[in-house]
């Protein structure tokens, strides 16, 4: 399967496959590099680095930079360490960077590729559900700064996204479940058919049934591509991809990453759905459908108590606020969103109470 992501400057392919066969040829269609740097993390390296290195070495001399796995590495220190590796191997603009990993590796490698020598092409080899369905597509790259998620970054499209769904078999269950929150999000904001597909294929998805995962990935990537195509720089419609993320990011930061990104997005989606209901935009049945789907995939587990004041403070720091206001995504129906800028601390407080009651 293949989706062409149309962009203003240069479109790129998202290839969805169930093996690394074809990877070499796909890279060769976009780049004939003089050298290749694979950027990956310490969990993925022992599992896949040799295999991928052997494939890309048929294209050009390849070397790797391995960083400590985890969100805590998504910082400027990791970026400068990678610059050092690139310099050590005399990487120049004729080289190629490969992001072999989840959203963390993809965001870091994409940022390095955007900034090293004013830009080196890069290829995304996404290894998690989050990365395969969301983060590898759309060109947002970056790192966290101090306490702020994704505070420093760029828009930098990859030359190619090559998805091998088989690698999900080594992904820890918790990461699979967390990642599915982003897929649920794509269904909720844009695609009723995807939402129903998730409802009706829960077991095959959690069992990583090959055909079902390929189909789900295709549908989910299509949602992301369609939205990004309409608004590559997030000045309008692309904001809807942040559904569940405003409160989700606040929880993610406050928990000091005890909960993974997707788990936090699930909490955030339910909070946003509840606020939509309180504003009489959404029926209570749909709020329940969304929480039910999240629960059925194992999301919405017990959430620790966080002060609403702290959540609110993080939300107001959020860089997505426009002219001092937070752009908050609400829901009118499955597949229909609306953006508001007048969300109040009181509404967030009510939503957090709802989440506490719903999550266990
Ligand atoms: N750029 C974007 O548009 C965008 C969108 C969504 C999320 N993100 C970012 O993505 C990040 C979260 O991504 P993530 O959930 O993929 O986290 P991650 O990259 O940390 O991966 C999760 C864990 O799974 C391990 N892992 C990855 N692939 C594996 C595999 N195939 N087998 C075994 N273990 C594997 C990793 O080592 C890590 O421990 C966050 O930083 C978030 O901000 C970015
Ligand atoms: Zn996300």
Summarize this entry quickly.
With 360 residues, this protein is α/β, with parallel strands linked by helices.
What does this structure look like?
With 360 residues, this protein is an alpha/beta fold. The chain has two domains: 2-168, 3-Layer(aba) Sandwich (Rossmann fold); 173-358, Dehydroquinate synthase-like, alpha domain, CATH 1.20.1090.10. The chain is built from 14 helices and eleven strands. It has helices at 23-30, 45-56, 76-88, 103-115, 129-135, 173-190, 192-200, 202-206, 210-230, 245-254, 261-278, 284-296, 308-317, 345-358; strands spanning 2-5, 12-17, 36-41, 62-67, 96-101, 122-126, 140-145, 148-155, 160-164, 328-333, 336-340. The strands form three sheets. A seven-stranded mixed sheet has the order 1-2-9-6-5-3-4, with helices on both faces. A two-stranded antiparallel sheet has the order 7-8. β7 and β8 (148-155) form a beta hairpin. The two termini are 38 Å apart. The mean pLDDT is 94. The chain binds nicotinamide-adenine-dinucleotide (NAD) and zinc ion. Zinc ion (ZN) is lined by residues 134, 182, 245, 261, 265.
Share of β-strand residues: 15-25%
Residue runs with pLDDT of under 50 for 5 or more positions: none
Bound molecules: nicotinamide-adenine-dinucleotide, zinc ion
Question: Can you name the CATH architecture of the largest domain?
Answer: Up-down Bundle
Shape: globular
Structure keywords:
globular; 48% helix; Rossmann fold; binds zinc ion; single chain; two-stranded antiparallel sheet; binds nicotinamide-adenine-dinucleotide; seven-stranded mixed beta sheet; alpha/beta; 2 domains; Dehydroquinate synthase-like, alpha domain; 14 helices; 11 strands; 360 residues
């Amino acid at each position: 399967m293949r989706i062409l992501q149309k962009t203003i400057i240069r479109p790129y392919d998202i290839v969805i496959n169930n093996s690394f066969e074809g990877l070499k040829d796909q890279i060769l269609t976009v780049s004939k590099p003089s050298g290749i740097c694979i950027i990956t993390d310490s969990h993925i390296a022992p599992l896949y680095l040799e295999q991928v290195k052997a494939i890309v070495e048929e294209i050009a001399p390849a070397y790797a930079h391995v960083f400590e796995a985890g969100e805590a590495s998504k910082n400027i220190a990791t970026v400068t360490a990678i610059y050092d590796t690139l310099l050590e191997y005399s990487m120049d603009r004729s080289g190629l960077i490969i992001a072999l990993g989840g959203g963390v590796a993809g965001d870091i490698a994409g940022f390095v590729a955007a900034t090293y020598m004013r830009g080196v092409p890069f290829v995304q080899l996404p290894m998690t559900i989050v990365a395969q369905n969301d983060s590898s597509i759309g060109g947002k790259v970056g790192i966290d700064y101090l306490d702020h998620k994704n505070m420093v970054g760029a828009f930098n499209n990859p030359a190619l996204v090559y998805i091998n769904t088989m690698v999900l078999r080594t992904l820890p269950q918790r990461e699979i479940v967390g990642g599915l929150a982003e897929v649920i999000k794509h269904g909720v904001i844009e695609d009723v058919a995807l939402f129903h597909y998730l409802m009706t294929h829960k077991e095959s998805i959690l069992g990583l049934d090959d055909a079902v995962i390929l189909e789900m990935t295709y549908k989910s990537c299509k949602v992301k591509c369609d939205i990004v195509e309409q608004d590559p720089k997030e000045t309008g419609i692309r904001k809807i991809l942040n559904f569940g993320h405003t409160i989700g990011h606040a929880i993610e930061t406050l928990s000091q990453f005890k909960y993974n990104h997707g788990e936090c997005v699930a909490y955030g989606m339910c909070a946003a759905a509840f606020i939509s209901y309180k504003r009489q935009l959404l029926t209570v049945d749909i709020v329940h459908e969304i929480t039910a789907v999240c629960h059925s995939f194992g999301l919405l587990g017990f959430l620790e108590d966080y002060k609403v004041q702290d959540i609110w403070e993080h939300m107001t720091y959020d860089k997505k606020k426009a002219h001092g206001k937070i752009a908050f995504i609400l829901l009118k129906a499955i597949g229909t969103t609306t953006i508001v800028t007048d969300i109040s601390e009181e509404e967030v407080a009510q939503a957090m109470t709802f989440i506490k009651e719903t999550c266990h």
